[in-house]
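Q: Could you fold this chain for me?
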Amino acid sequence: MSSGQKESGGDALWTADAILDATGGRLVGPSPREITGLSIDTRTLEPGALYVAIRGDRLDGHDYVEAAFTAGASCALVASDWPGLKSPEDPAGSVIVVDDTLAGMGDIGRAARARGRGKIIAVTGSVGKTGSKEALRLCLGAQGTVHAAEKSFNNHWGVPLTLGRMPPETEFGIFEIGMNHAGEIRPLVQMVRPHIALITTVEPVHLGHFNGLEGIADAKAEIFEGIEPGGVAVLNRDNQFYDRLAQRARDVGVKEILSFGASDASDKADMRLTDVTLTSTGSDVTANFRGQEIKYRLSIPGRHIVQNSLGILLVVAAAGGDLEVAATELAGIAPQKGRGVRTVFEVAGGQVALVDESYNANPASMRAAFEAIAGTPKTEFSRRIAVLGDMLELGAASEELHVALAENIADADIDLVFASGPFMEKLYQALPVAQRGAYGRNSEEIRAALIDEVRSGDLVMVKGSLGSRMGALVAALNNHLIEA
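A: Sure. Below is the predicted structure, expressed as C-alpha cells.
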C-alpha cells in the first residue's frame, strides 16, 4: 500500500512495549527486535520498521503483510480479523493485534506527541501549505533537529504516520494539515497539538464542498482548537478573512495572534514587507519585524512566494528561532515536483523553458502562476504559452471561476493557451481567437498539437488539478524537448 514516503532507518524509534502501551494491542508471535521506523508501504519499507496494515479505498494493507516481513519489517500492526491470524501460535511474524489499524496508528501518533519535548508547528491554508512546510524545514533545520513529512502527508493517515515517525529528540516538528470538508482538520490538530499554527491564506479551493468562502475560512479555523495553552496563531493580514480568523482564534482561547502582510494596508502586521524586487529567477526582499530590518533573497519567482516567506519568518520568530539565519536559508528554497519546477532546454535555434505546475490548481494558484511567468521578460523568452487543465472541486462556481481567468491571462500577456477539460473549454471559448492554441476533452487530446507548436523562444507553463492529468503533458514535453 503506497504512502509515497521512504522510510528512514537508524536508531530505535519505538519498542514493542511502547507500541503495545500506546495501542492497547496484544502481541502474537515472538517479541520483535527494536523498531526503527514506521511504514504503510512495503515498496519503501526499510528493515526494522513497524508495518501498519491500513485498509484503504482501493487496497488492503493486510494483503502485503508477508511482503513487509520479506522486506525486513520488525513487526506488523494488524486488525483482529486478519485471516493471517490462524492461531496464536501461527502468525506470519511478530504482529501486534488491534481492532482498527488506522486508529492504532493514531494512538502511536498521539504517543509520539506526548513524549516529544520540541516546538510543534502546524500549517494549513488553501494554498502554500507544502511550500511553507518545506521552507520551515530548511529555516529551522539550520537551528536544530527538525522532523517533517517528505511529501504532502496532510490527511487522516498522513498526519498520524508523520507523528509516529517523529523521534523523541526532535526540536522542531512541522506538520501540514489539509482538508476537503468541514470537520477534517479538528481531529488532526487535536492529535498534533501545535504550539504555533499558521494559516497561509483562504481561497476558493474545494469550494464544491462548502456553501461559500466563509465556510472554508471556518474550516481552516479548526486548527486553532488544537493549539496548546500559551500557543500562537500566525495569520495572513492581507487575506479578506483575517478578522474572521483572528476572532475564531480568540473564541477558543488563543491569546497571541501574529500577522504578516505585504500590502500597503498591512502597516499593523508584525512581519511586514517594506521593499521587494521581483525578477524572473526570484526576488530580493526587505521585511520589518517589529523594528528589525531583514533582507533576504528568494530563488523562486512570484509575489505569492514573497507573501508566504513573510509567514515563514514569523513562524520562525514565534518558535524562538534566529531570523537572520532563517532569512539566509530562504535562498535555498527549491520548488517541488509539479509545483513550479522550471527546466530550460537547449533546442535548435535557442531555448525553451518549461514550468511544471501540474500538481494542483485553483483560482488563486492559477493567478499566481500567471503572474510568475509574466515576471520573465520577453527579451528572455519571446512567447508565453499556458497549458491549462480543469480546476476541480469548485462546485456551482466552476464555470464562472474558469472564465474569470481570461482577465488574468490577458494581464500576464500570455500569447497562446492550450486547454483541456469541460470547464477549461468555457475559458478557451472566452479567449480571443488568436490566443487559442488547441482544446481537448482531456490532456491526451491536446498532446500532439502542443508538441507540434512549441519552438525556440517559448516559455511553457503547464497547470491543472491533479485529476486533470496535466503531468502527462509535462512528461511528454520533457521527452520531446530532450530529443529536440
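A (continued): The chain has 16 helices and 20 strands.
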